[in-house]
Amino acid sequence: MDSIFSNPYLIRWLAMGGLVLLVAFFAMSETSLFSLSPLDRLRLKEKQPARGGVVEDILSRPRRLLVTVLIGVETSSIMFSVLATSMVLSLWGPHGEWRVLLVMVLTSQFLGEIIPKSLALAYPVQFAGRMAPLIRPMIFILSPFRVVFLQISRGILVALGFRPDLPVHSVQQEDFVGMVEDSHRRGLIAAMERDFIQNLLNFGELRVGQIMVPRPDMFTLAVDLPFPEMIQAIKRSRFSRVPIYEETHDHVLGVLHAKDILELCHQGPCEGEMPRHLLRPAHYVPENKRAFDLLNELQAQHQRLALVVDEYGSLVGLVTVEDLLEELCGEIPQEFKEEEEALKAVSPGVWRVRGHVSLADFNEALGLKLPAAEFDTIGGLVLNLF
What we know:
Elements lengths: L1 H4 L2 H27 L3 H10 L1 H11 L2 H31 L4 H26 L1 H18 L1 H17 L13 H13 L5 H13 L4 H4 L1 E2 L6 E2 L4 H11 L3 E6 L1 E10 H10 L16 E3 L4 H10 L4 E5 L5 E6 H9 L13 E5 L2 E4 L5 H8 L11 H7 L2
Parallel strand pairs: 2-3, 5-6
Antiparallel strand pairs: 1-7, 3-4, 6-7, 8-9
């Protein structure tokens, strides 16, 4: 027994093997834990509460884990390199340098990092549950070294103008969308609830120009139109609020409310010209304004309609609270509104399309790839052809 352990080469081989296992342990711990999505962590906590709790505790401080793993991997790799170099040179002399590289690649890199990390990437949940209870004591053991390295790295980052203490946001939007989809597949939420959550996430990125009614499709009336004709036009349109312009559409005098007309006509006959005192001030917004901000703004100011202008102040469309809410909840049915299909198949290969249909919707419906970046609507594309 004494002769076995007195063999210096055997002790070195055992030490090198132990160091490779240590490198593999740290590498597998790092890859498996940092590869977990929020949904993976939730599943692990449901199936294995104890291990899931340890994982949550470790990942709650990712910098601590990362520095611990790096210290473990680098220290073990350096010690392995020293032993491997000493072993090879003692066996083959100064001409065995290339054998050092071979030993390093086949053992430390291949067995210590490539294979363990590949396995951890393929089965992150399984390995994270097993590695977490083992890496936790290593975090405690290496804490003195970790504190020193963290302070040094923090000082360097601050000197370079970075802010290393900013909070880490672990849940990204795509992760949350994946959790919502998985919840729907498991029957935890209905399709309508899933769609609402996805619409809510997308709503934050929408701009007013993407959802407005474009100027050619706006219903507006000239101020010099006889009042009785104006009333009849509003009745036919079924709109409760109508922009009133003078001479050109860019010169909007205000917004006429149908209920104000009813109150006036209830007091007496509505003849002659429209009384201009009925007009309410128009609310203008830029087309690049965020839809979420506009919804809050309209609610705060008790407005239902806003006129949209471009960077030059020209009128380009309008948007209502209903338009904004439909982006969240889907199409809002209106009993008084006569629905007309904007996109309808007339015969094989023939479609009837309204000019305001966006090219993006048209391409999606028909599986085409028309240049949606150059034109917003079908009408714009057709006009450009002539």
